[in-house]
């Protein structure tokens, strides 16, 4: 995933939470983004504003219009692309091994047998596509 300047886009935890609000709700003003955070621990308006402007410089969000004094923003990168980049970073930290992540998710109850069956189906579909594209060459 690249920003407008051609660099790989890296998102901080706060930036990712802001992006989640935009992906979930579409176009939002800074005040609406701030209000998407839960009340206890909600970042200050100016913190959200500064972070949104940084996301705009990175090419992750864009202004779509202005209503009164409020600029309205939308995500300029797809959720899936951002999530893929984040997962690639995590795996890089683990030397490319998925087993530690899967073990953690199993131990914490975040990965179920149903999830594994769905992943197995997706893996089979992916392998079939790969065979098909290799055969067409």
Overview features:
single chain, 137 residues, mainly alpha, Arc Repressor Mutant, subunit A, three-stranded antiparallel β-sheet
Explain what the structure shows.
It is a single chain. The protein has two domains: about 100 residues, Winged helix-like DNA-binding domain superfamily/Winged helix DNA-binding domain (Arc Repressor Mutant, subunit A); about 40 residues, no CATH class. It is extended, with a radius of gyration of 19 Å. It has six helices and three strands, in the order H-E-H-H-E-E-H-H-H. Helices cover about 60% and strands about 10% of the residues. It is mostly helical and about 140 residues long. Strand 2 and strand 3 form a beta hairpin.
């Amino acid at each position: 995933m690249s920003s407008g300047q051609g660099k790989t886009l890296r998102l901080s935890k706060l930036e990712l939470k802001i992006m989640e609000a935009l992906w979930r709700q579409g176009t939002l003003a800074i005040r609406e983004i701030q209000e998407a955070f839960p009340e206890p621990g909600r970042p200050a308006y100016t913190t959200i504003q500064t972070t949104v402007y940084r996301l705009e410089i990175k090419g992750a969000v864009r202004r779509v219009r202005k209503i009164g004094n409020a600029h309205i923003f939308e995500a300029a990168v797809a959720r899936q692309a951002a999530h893929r980049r984040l997962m690639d970073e995590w795996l890089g930290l683990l030397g490319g091994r998925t087993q530690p992540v899967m073990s953690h998710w199993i131990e914490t109850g975040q990965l179920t047998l149903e999830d594994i069956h769905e992943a197995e189906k997706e893996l089979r579909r992916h392998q079939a596509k790969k065979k098909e594209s290799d055969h067409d060459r």
